[in-house]
Write a structure and sequence with these properties.
The structure holds 2 protein chains of 2 kinds. By secondary structure, chain A is of the alpha/beta class. Helix content of chain A is 30%, strand content 18%. Chain A has a single domain (25-249), classed as Rossmann fold (3-Layer(aba) Sandwich), CATH 3.40.50.970. Chain A has an 8-stranded mixed sheet, with helices on both faces. Chain B folds into 4 domains: 2-193, Pyruvate-ferredoxin Oxidoreductase, domain 3, CATH 3.40.920; 197-371, Rossmann fold (3-Layer(aba) Sandwich); 384-450, no CATH class; 456-563, Rossmann fold, CATH 3.40.50. In chain B, helix 8 (271-287) links the parallel strand 14 and strand 15 (291-297). The chains are: A alpha/beta, B alpha/beta.
Chain lengths: 253, 565
């Protein structure tokens, strides 16, 4: 996907990008750059903390402070950065294996601790970089070189709402405009903000494709009230029709 | 009639929950301030909240004391059933005071109503406060000295009851002395030159504060928690962030994130907790972000003996983390050294951008030591630079140390990467970058060596036997050699274990026989000396039963070696 928009302060000159053609990560990268630019945050002020995996490479490809650490550990690093310098805009970013598998405990406790940072999870329901194994969000029946999935997928949205997370949203990478706006709202939100982003893996996930996500997702209506926790939970546990937008907020900004 | 003595060892025995810690923390400073003698206090306890057999040893002497002794001159037991726990250490010279219900046929006891909770004025007696009263009476510390301390130490609600119990014990003991069943202690007149009492944990916390530490993370684990607790207390009126996290992995990563953003962070843990942090230590080595880690050692493997002492995590710390990168390991032997080296740890971490470990143990952290006033001349050194728009986090330099910027301080951006990276900090997989960057990181060790802390040599230059030790064994080796009082023994104590100071070689080569003293079962430091200096100890004195070396035990072993032909 070619970037037709004029170069921003966040654009790097000819980055050597290691993503596969057609990967949803490109759209997420673009939405992030646009969101930060539109919020008039300088690259010096923003820090993107990531783990390991294809999603975690995102900060390599734009001009921003980067802490590319260990698999699963972006949230505690991001929390330490934000505590040490609250002036910084801190984003923790990684894939579903990184954030919900290896880093699952940090996910639960970041919600409790409620640091003022944005948590972006590229959720493609498969392990890409290690070549196609099941992830914590892979659906039952998903076939990989290792397994035919029998474990129930982790439901990050339901977990976050159950823990009364400060801000819970879901997006789909193809809808760059929606994602950009959600990112802007999340960054401006006071407290921990989760954005789970559906992102097709064009190489290893032949089930949850662009078409599959289009068929199984819908946008929450404009008059949807994200402050109703019970309603939000109902939406979160619906595994057939997957809502996109701000699903839950525990306080009004 | 008072006994004139130079040195007395008092042991208080009781169960968890009976307030042994209160006895120790209340008595030790009073004894130091109002007898003029040196005081050292150490406790041993079981891994439980209530019950069991615990004891605290308060060692009072006319000369400085830094070590555990087996000998018990006065034993006061709050145990109703037996004193079997301490049987090996009781001799015919041990005076034993116990509750009147205790039956111990082998021993002659002075029995008093200690545990009855008798009505005493309008309050019931409290056993541990009676014990405090007994000791205060035996040292003839006057009420004008101890009463103000009661108000300071106990809460308003309990101060009165505790005071009455202390007075009850005091008067009971005075009466026993009049009846000549007990004798008051009179030590040979002296004035302790070190009039501050501090635990190893407090000394490390004080050093951290003086080193500019402003961020501490931990998951509670004995014995490292004591330092965390002191830091949390200090943080009440200082700008220090304290975060108890979900696990040790989070503790290490959060601290690393804090350093990256400009804080001076410390992690406190024990060997088991540290094992969980090893991947993050490797990350610190790769991204060249400073880190300070306090490790309180206890016997392993696994949960081992959670409340006991050992020096068995040197190898863990020396080799922690995959891949190869420089590090610094410190192991202070005295509170003064703990203060100075912890302070220095922050400067070293900042300067060289490497992980710095402070290797302590349960014995050192929990014991109370007399100490001089700490030397405050060492200053906080920071090495953070303001970045420009061309800033490269891993700029190649002569000594391998790249100027360290932090986010949003200057016009540059700061990129650190767990992957092998180029000078800018971005992922790079080519061989040339790999070799250049690995050499750059390793090169820092040469500069680090120039800042190494020299080992402490004590003894005559004409020694035959060199007793080598590290960390908390400073005190016991020093006291043992003083008692042996011969020029044939000298000691060499290492408070920096890695990298080693080159001066150490001189002493090691001069020794006819090297005797290594370590609280572990394999001689880990002996192996390190062999690795670094190609020197091997002639004798290993190893102890790994969970207790610290005693002066008597070490004396026996050294005498045995010196008598060998």
């Amino acid at each position: 996907m070619k970037n037709n928009i004029a170069l921003t302060r966040y654009d790097k000159n000819k980055p050597d990008i290691a993503w596969c053609p057609g990967c949803g990560n490109f759209q997420i990268l673009r939405a992030m750059k646009l969101a930060l630019e539109e919020l008039n945050i300088s690259p010096q002020q923003a820090v993107v903390v990531s783990g390991i995996g294809q999603a975690a490479k995102t900060p390599q490809y734009f001009n921003v402070n980067m802490f590319n650490g260990l698999h699963g550990r972006a949230l505690p690093v991001a929390t330490g950065i934000k505590l040490a310098n609250p002036e910084l805009v801190v984003i923790a970013e990684g894939g579903d294996g990184d954030m919900y598998g290896e880093g699952g405990n940090h996910f639960l406790h970041a919600i409790r601790r409620n640091p003022n940072l944005t948590h972006i999870v590229h959720n493609n329901m498969v392990y890409g970089l290690t070549k196609g194994q099941a992830s914590p969000t892979s659906q039952i029946g998903f076939k990989s070189p290792i397994q035919s999935v029998t474990d129930m997928p982790l439901n990050p949205i339901a977990i976050a709402i159950a823990q009364n997370a400060s801000f819970v949203a879901r997006s789909f990478s193809l809808n760059i405009n929606q994602l950009k706006n959600l990112l802007k709202t999340a960054i401006q939100h006071e407290g921990y903000a989760l954005i789970d982003v559906f992102q097709p893996c064009v190489v290893f996930n032949k089930v949850n494709t662009y078409q599959w996500f289009q068929e199984h997702t819908y946008d929450l209506p404009n008059d949807y009230n994200p402050y109703d926790r019970e309603k939000a939970f109902q939406i979160a546990i619906d595994e057939h029709n997957l809502a996109l937008g701000i699903i839950y907020k525990n306080h009004i900004d | 009639m008072q006994k004139k003595i130079k040195d007395i060892s008092i042991v208080i025995h009781g169960a968890a929950g009976q307030g042994l810690k209160t006895i120790e923390l209340f008595l030790a400073p009073l004894l130091l301030q109002h007898t003029g003698f040196y005081v050292f206090s150490t406790s041993e306890y079981m891994s439980r909240i209530r019950g069991g057999n615990n004891s605290v040893e308060i060692h009072v002497s006319t000369s400085p004391v830094l070590a555990f002794v087996e000998r018990i001159d006065l034993l006061i037991s709050m145990n109703r059933f037996n004193i079997d726990h301490l049987c090996d250490r009781i001799t015919k010279n041990t005076t034993i005071i116990a509750d009147h219900s205790l039956i111990a046929e082998k021993h002659s006891l002075i029995q008093i109503p200690l545990l009855d909770n008798v009505q005493n004025g309008n309050e019931k007696t409290i056993p541990n406060s009676i014990v405090i009263g007994i000791v205060l009476s035996l040292f003839a510390i006057s009420p004008t000295h101890y009463i103000p301390e009661i108000k300071k130490y106990f809460s308003k609600a309990t101060a009165n009851q505790n005071q009455q119990s202390i007075e009850y014990g005091y008067q009971l003991t005075d009466k026993l002395c009049e009846e000549k069943k007990l004798t008051k202690y009179k030590l040979i007149a002296t004035t302790a030159k070190q009039d501050h009492l501090i635990s190893g944990a407090e000394a490390i916390a004080a050093g951290a504060i003086s080193g500019g530490c402003n961020f501490v993370t931990a998951y509670p684990m004995s014995p490292g928690t004591s330092v965390f607790t002191h830091m949390a207390k200090a943080a009440r009126d200082r700008p220090i962030i304290i975060e108890q996290v979900e696990d040790e992995i989070s503790a290490a990563n959060m601290a690393l994130g804090a350093w990256y953003a400009g804080a001076r962070a410390m992690i406190t843990t024990a060997g088991g907790g540290f094992a969980l942090m090893c991947e993050t230590i490797s990350l610190a080595g790769m991204i060249e972000t400073p880190l300070v880690v306090l490790i309180g050692q206890r016997p392993g493997p696994a949960t081992g003996l959670p409340t006991r002492t050992e020096q068995s995590d040197l190898n863990l710390v020396l080799y922690a983390g995959h891949g190869e990168f420089p590090r610094i390991i410190l192991a202070p032997g005295t509170p003064q050294e703990a203060f100075q080296l912890t302070q220095k740890a922050f400067n070293l971490a900042d300067k060289f951008q490497v992980p710095v470990f402070i290797l302590a143990d349960q014995f050192f952290l929990d014991s109370l030591y007399c100490t001089d006033v700490f030397d405050l001349t060492q200053k906080i050194e920071t090495h953070i630079i303001k970045t420009d728009s061309c800033y490269q986090r891993y700029q190649l330099t002569e000594d391998g140390i790249s100027p360290r910027g932090i986010p949003n301080y200057g016009d540059g951006i700061v990129c650190v990467d767990s992957d092998e990276h180029n000078e800018t900090g971005y992922i790079a997989e080519d061989k040339k970058t790999r070799i250049t960057m690995q050499n750059k990181r390793l090169k820092k060790l040469e500069s680090i060596k120039k800042y190494a802390y020299a080992p402490t040599f004590i003894g005559s230059e004409n020694f035959t036997f060199l007793v080598v030790c590290w960390g908390s064994n400073y005190g016991v080796v020093q006291e043992t050699l003083q008692q042996l009082n011969t020029t044939s023994f000298a000691m060499l104590h290492f408070a920096q274990l890695y990298p080693l100071h080159p001066e150490a070689k001189k002493y090691l080569h001069q020794a006819h026989k090297i005797i290594m003293v370590e609280n572990n079962s394999s001689g880990q430091f002996d192996s390190l000396l062999h690795r670094e200096f190609n020197v091997r100890s002639d004798h290993l004195i190893l102890q790994y039963d969970g207790s610290p070396f005693s002066v008597e035990g070490l004396t026996r072993q050294l005498q045995h070696i010196s008598n060998e032909k």
